[in-house]
Each structure stands twice: as structure tokens, then as C-alpha cells.
């Protein structure tokens, strides 16, 4: 029997990402366009448990496509990881007459969604919203392009002072355990190297950097480091550099949460808008427990199980490109 969807619940969960608002707008308007009511659930799964839910009309999403963050707030909710928490969430869903969910977030968001969908037979579609770009099955995630451009802007500024003082800068970027932001920002900002967690297991990247004649022909250097226990982060590498090579004048910049804010780029707005429309279409096509992805500019449906289970590989060839271009 066809599961009729009359009302869809929408939430953002996990770390926010620029473009989430564009996705909220797209989901809301596409649902309304198709005669489906939309209920915004505030603060991610937490709002589903506490009942912070509000019906959205088309005007609730006016003037937000250009805004960073998420107007419906976000949270990481430990309670949703418990059976009791999910039971309360389901009861609230029924009370609010929500028939299906669209969840925008990353790995943790989809892990929760998968379990919830299985336990209560709830139709759920996910949108990949994370600056980390670390979800398998999609070429890009919502927020990645904006974060990348924010990083490049910051690195360009640091380069001015690095060059004036003839210093070596280790700049730490986000990415949780993935090196996408580090690798692409290093290439796009003309950095000498990117230190990423994916490669650390194979080689001593700092050693390799020095061996390759790092800073030989330059008066300053910039190394982009992915935050991670594996890489040791920018501070860890800087400490080691100072110890082993006191001749370098080393400085550290940790870009931090500046990377998560700001108005989304055109690419992120377009991506979020396309994906938002596709999420509602997928629910109407009776698709369940899938993430909307984009591959070669085509919308794809990726089962949550795959998006969560598989690690998306970074293109390690880019390390070679960075190395060649840094001579
Ligand atoms: O997943 C997005 C992200 O920004 C990661 O890059 C980072 O490790 C983490 O979230 C930071 O989380 P919080 O904002 O909770 O400190």
C-alpha cells in the first residue's frame, strides 16, 4: 500500500554548514508546491524529543537563501541515541501528524535516521550538509564550497604577513577525520603542502616535506594541516618543527569555527536548492532511508547504510600536484 505523505518534518542536525538555509527553503517550498504540509523541528533530533516543532509556510523561508547557519538551529543529541529517546521522538511525530522526515546533516545525523527509520518504519530522506565533504556517495556536500572559500580567503591574508616576516605558518583547518578541506585549500591557496590524516598512516609527512627541499627557494611557507589526532594538528607539527629545525621561524593559525559561518557561495546555494527539491521528490517516489547525493552533476540516491559505512577517499594525486607547484 502506498504510504501517503501529507506532512513532512524537517530538521538540521550536527555541525551547521552554509547552505543549510537554502536547503530548508527548497524543501519547504517544494513540499508546499506538492500540497504537503511542512513542520520545522528545532534543534535537530532534540526538538523531536522535546516537541519544539512549528509549521512552516512559504514566507517562513523568505530571505534566507543567502544566510549562513541554520534558522531552525542544530544540535548533537545524545538522547536520540537511546531507545527511550527515539520512542519519545516517534510519539511526538505522531502527535504532530508528521508522516516523514527530511534530515540535513552528516554521518551522525544519518546514523540516527537509519536506526529510527528501521525501528518505527518512518520514511526518511537525508541531505548531506557538512563542511567536511566526508560523505560517501556524493561528490560534494552542502557547505563544503563555502568553507573552502573562507579558508582560502584567510590563507591569502596570512600569506601577506608570512611573506613579510619570512615565516613558516602551519594553518589548521577543519575536517574532523577527513582531509578534503585541507587538500583542496592547500592547492587553491598555493600552499607548500597539505598534511592530511588519510596519508599519515603511510608516511611521515613532515619528514617528507623537509626532505623535498621545503622552503629552499622561498622566503616564507604555508602548510595546511587537517585537524586530527592522526596528524597531530598544527600545534603538534609546529612543536616538532621548532624542536627539530630551530632555524625556522614558526607560527600557527587555527582557523576554527570561522570556517563554518558566512553567506553560502553560489555553488552551495545551487547545490542545496537542487538537493532540497530532490529530497521531496524522492519521498513522493517512495524512496526511503536514502541520502541525496550528486555525482557528475546528476542527482543520485545513496542508501544511508552505504553513506555511513564507506569512507569517501580523498584524491591523493592532488598531493603530488601541490608538491610540483610548490617548487
Ligand atoms: O563536522 C563539522 C565540524 O565542523 C568538523 O569539521 C569539526 O571537527 C567539528 O564539526 C567541530 O564540532 P563543534 O562545532 O561541535 O566543535
Bound molecules: 6-O-phosphono-beta-D-fructofuranose
Main beta sheet: strand number and arrangement?
7 strands, mixed
Q: Briefly, what CATH class of the largest domain?
A: Alpha Beta
- Judging from the principal axes of the Cα atoms, what is the shape? elongated
How many strands in all? 11
Distance between the termini: 64 Å
Q: Radius of gyration over alpha carbons?
A: 22 Å
Topology diagram in text:
Elements: E1 7-12, H1 20-33, E2 37-41, H2 45-50, E3 53-56, H3 83-95, E4 100-105, H4 107-120, E5 124-128, H5 144-165, E6 168-173, H6 180-189, E7 193-195, H7 197-200, H8 205-211, E8 221-226, H9 233-244, E9 250-254, H10 266-284, E10 290-295, E11 298-303, H11 304-309, H12 317-325
Parallel strand pairs: 1-2, 1-4, 4-5, 5-10, 6-8, 6-9, 7-8
Antiparallel strand pairs: 2-3, 10-11
Helix pairs in contact: 1-10, 5-6, 6-12
Bound molecules: 6-O-phosphono-beta-D-fructofuranose.
6-O-phosphono-beta-D-fructofuranose (F6P) binds at residues 15, 106, 130-132, 174-176, 227, 260.
Amino acid at each position: 500500500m502506498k504510504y501517503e505523505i501529507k506532512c513532512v518534518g524537517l530538521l538540521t542536525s550536527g555541525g551547521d554548514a552554509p547552505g543549510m538555509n537554502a536547503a530548508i527553503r527548497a524543501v519547504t517550498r517544494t513540499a508546499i508546491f506538492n500540497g504537503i504540509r511542512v513542520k520545522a523541528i528545532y534543534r535537530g533530533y532534540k526538538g523531536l524529543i522535546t516537541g519544539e516543532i512549528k509549521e512552516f509556510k512559504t514566507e517562513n523561508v523568505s530571505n534566507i537563501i543567502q544566510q549562513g547557519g541554520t534558522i531552525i538551529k542544530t544540535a548533537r543529541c545524545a538522547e536520540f541515541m537511546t531507545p527511550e529517546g527515539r520512542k519519545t521522538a516517534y510519539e511526538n511525530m505522531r502527535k504532530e501528524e508528521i508522516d516523514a522526515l527530511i534530515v540535513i546533516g552528516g554521518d551522525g545525523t544519518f546514523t540516527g535516521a537509519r536506526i529510527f527509520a528501521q525501528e518505527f518504519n518512518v520514511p526518511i530522506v537525508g541531505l548531506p550538509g557538512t563542511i567536511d565533504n566526508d560523505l560517501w556517495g556524493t561528490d560534494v556536500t552542502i557547505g563544503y564550497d563555502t568553507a573552502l572559500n573562507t579558508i582560502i580567503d584567510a590563507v591569502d591574508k596570512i600569506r601577506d604577513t608570512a611573506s613579510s616576516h619570512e615565516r613558516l605558518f602551519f594553518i589548521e583547518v577543519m575536517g574532523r577525520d577527513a582531509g578534503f578541506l585541507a587538500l583542496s585549500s592547500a592547492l587553491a591557496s598555493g600552499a607548500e603542502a597539505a598534511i592530511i590524516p588519510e596519508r599519515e598512516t603511510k608516511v611521515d609527512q613532515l619528514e617528507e616535506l623537509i626532505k623535498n627541499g621545503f622552503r629552499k627557494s622561498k622566503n616564507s611557507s604555508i602548510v595546511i594541516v587537517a585537524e586530527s589526532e592522526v596528524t597531530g594538528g598544527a600545534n603538534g607539527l609546529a612543536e616538532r618543527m621548532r624542536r627539530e629545525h630551530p632555524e625556522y621561524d614558526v607560527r600557527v593559525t587555527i582557523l576554527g569555527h570561522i570556517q563554518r559561518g558566512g553567506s553560502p557561495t553560489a555553488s552551495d546555494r545551487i547545490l542545496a536548492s537542487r538537493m532540497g527539491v530532490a529530497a521531496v521528490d524522492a519521498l513522493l517516489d517512495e524512496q526511503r532511508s536514502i541520502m541525496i547525493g550528486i555525482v557528475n552533476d546528476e542527482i543520485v540516491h545513496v542508501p544511508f547504510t552505504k553513506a555511513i559505512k564507506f569512507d569517501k577517499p580523498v584524491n591523493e594525486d592532488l598531493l603530488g600536484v601541490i608538491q610540483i607547484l610548490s617548487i
